[in-house]
């Protein structure tokens, strides 16, 4: 392998490192992106983004939701936006937008029968071109659980897409394959080789964040990443757990070392796992809401440090909302 080939591979790997989208201002009228590999902040002046919350990206498209802060209007405008082509795909208005923190596309939205699936306290989905969502409310979830003892929705903590299949995690010990069938969502529990319960579960009184993330290794297997605040008042007292979810063997194994990989997570949107090019290996980069820092958790020594990457303009314009997006979008 010659020097030129090696440099090209490094550039390709670095281009997979996600960008941190920073939305701020009283009406979320300002947006910036932070390139963690280059350690640079770039301000964006894109009219379509103004007043929108970015709920992640998929297939090169941003998922945009308009936060509504009104007692009289809970319908939030939604759309998909492609910054490369400036194309916009309108979606039905989303009721109670604040109940959702993740959104997934089943395929590129320009292809037939692409579904948009929002998840959070409730779940809503539609097919591109539909005029409204099919929504499963919290009340419906509890009713189903009481009526038939089946898999309910109230514990669906995270979703992710691997090899074309949507998976979900339900606290404290269930993994499910998610299928959209007509106007319903079917949860098919994945039988584990051995019973496995995540540490710090809600059954033990803990509140935590969790992500299903695709590994950057060649097999692209799912990783389960859990964040728990040991002390609510001190961000440095935080703990992360990383598990490898072997879909073939149906088992979870804790990883104390992820090698030359870096994980990226925010409270909204999806997480990423990439080769450590320009980032700290065996670490997790994460943010918290309305906070001016990008934190780094070292999986080896279990310590947390922070990078103050936002400028004074961002710091002065709260609220601050962040999420990681695909690098190639900008």
Termini separation: 30 Å
Beta content comes to over 45%
Helices and strands: which structural class? mainly beta
What does the largest sheet look like? 5 strands, mixed
Shape: globular
According to DSSP, the number of beta strands is 25
User: Widest sheet: strand order?
Assistant: 21-20-22-23-24
| Low-confidence regions | 1-15
Q: Return the string of H and E elements.
A: HEEEEEEEEEEEHEEEEEEEEEEEEEHE
Number of helices: 3
Report the mean per-residue pLDDT as an integer. 83
Give an overview in words.
The protein has 330 residues and is mostly beta strands. The protein contains three helices and 25 strands. The chain has helices at residues 3-14, 138-148, 312-315; strands at 19-24, 30-35, 40-44, 53-58, 61-65, 75-82, 87-95, 100-105, 115-120, 123-127, 134-136, 156-162, 165-170, 174-181, 184-189, 208-214, 222-229, 238-246, 251-254, 261-265, 272-275, 283-286, 294-298, 303-307, 320-325. The strands form six sheets. The chain has a five-stranded mixed beta sheet with strand order 21-20-22-23-24, with no helix packed on it. A four-stranded antiparallel beta sheet has the order 3-2-1-25, with no helix packed on it. A four-stranded antiparallel beta sheet has the order 4-5-6-7, with no helix packed on it. The protein is globular, with a radius of gyration of 20 Å.
